[in-house]
Design goal:
Elements: H1 2-8, E1 13-17, E2 20-23, E3 29-32, E4 35-38, E5 43-45, H2 48-54, H3 60-68, H4 97-105, H5 110-119, E6 122-124, E7 131-136, E8 142-148, E9 155-157, E10 168-169, E11 178-182, H6 185-197, E12 206-209, H7 216-224, E13 230-233, H8 239-253, H9 256-261, E14 263-266, H10 278-302
Parallel strand pairs: 11-12, 11-13, 13-14
Antiparallel strand pairs: 1-2, 2-3, 3-4, 4-5, 6-7, 7-8, 8-9, 10-12
Helix pairs in contact: 2-3
Length: about 300
């Protein structure tokens, strides 16, 4: 696949590590060690044929013909790529019944959801009734949005989104020195819910989603909030999360201002038997609490 892109789509290639590439159209599509994986869609492969079918949407015959040169003109004859579509938020539904029900099923606290509704960082889309997680810049302007299906595993960033301004849940005090970094918006909401569940003040920390493991949203948030001095890295407890933490650490160390100001705290999720991320952990905790209340109710009834 790397050879194909170098030959026919060199404008798509972007180096994202010493031996890793991504594409400009899909920055979650990683190419390394002869393999590629489109992390946001959960698909991957080894060959250019896989790429043309799974990413470019070609049928098998069309993909083979493209590789044989029957359909792909040489780079000099290719039309220039279309300019990116301007960013625009999806139309909102009049009510948020579907996403409230969905997020409650994922264990998210209603008060925390309410804070997001009020801030305009969470709403339900009119079409398909997806969760829309909105990222805003310091002026309050919407710059990013991602959709999360309430009935399936659908997830995608809205076209034209600026991933530097990903979904966040700010602390009550803007000058708060603490930031918790998660991979997804639901994990960020889960962190806040867990803090509240254990009796803490969930508004005493900032929470941010990276929309994956790339450091750009964290770096932007830290520069926009110069009072932050403690950063908890709360990525998934898997290989991608472990590598992501290393990338985040390196990004901070390479920034002269942040390397002096920020102290990193590594808070990986609990062992795999409790789930690979903080939402799975939250669901386990809530399930255990329900079972405990049921046992207590049985004991009281027997008395």
């Amino acid at each position: 696949m790397l050879s194909y892109l170098q030959t026919y789509e060199p404008h798509e290639l972007k180096r994202s590590g010493p031996s890793e590439y991504c594409t400009r159209t899909h920055d979650s599509l990683k190419i390394s060690n002869g393999k590629w994986c489109w992390n946001s869609r959960g698909v991957g492969g080894r060959t250019a044929l896989d790429y043309l079918i799974k990413v470019r949407g070609m049928d098998f015959v069309g993909a083979v013909e493209a590789l044989c040169g029957y359909r792909s003109p040489p780079p000099s004859e290719r039309p220039k790529p279309k300019p990116p579509k301007p960013f625009a938020l999806p139309a909102a539904s009049r009510c948020a019944t579907a996403i409230v029900s969905y997020l409650q099923s994922r264990g998210i606290d209603p008060d925390i959801m309410g804070a997001c509704f009020k801030a305009g960082t969470l709403y339900e889309s009119r079409r398909y009734h997806n969760c829309v997680f909105v990222g805003r810049d310091p002026t309050g302007r919407a710059r990013f949005a991602c959709l999360r299906g309430t009935r399936d595993n659908f997830r995608i960033d809205v076209e034209g989104s600026d991933k530097r301004y990903n979904f966040s849940l700010p602390a009550a005090d803007r000058s708060c020195p603490r930031l918790a970094v998660a991979e997804s918006p639901i994990d960020a909401l889960s962190l806040a819910t867990l803090v509240k569940l254990y009796g803490g003040d969930w508004q005493s920390s900032h929470y941010i989603s990276l929309g994956g493991t790339a450091p750009r949203a964290m770096l932007q948030f830290l520069h926009d909030h110069p009072k932050i001095t403690q950063v908890s890295l709360c990525l998934d407890n898997d290989k991608a999360g472990t590598l992501g933490i290393e990338r985040l650490e390196q990004a901070i160390q390479e920034d002269p201002e942040l390397s002096k100001r920020v102290t990193l705290i590594y808070h990986n999720p609990p062992p795999a038997e409790y789930g690979k991320d903080y939402n799975e952990f939250l669901c386990q905790v809530k399930s255990a609490q329900i079972q405990q209340r049921q046992r207590e109710g049985v004991r009281q009834a027997s008395i």
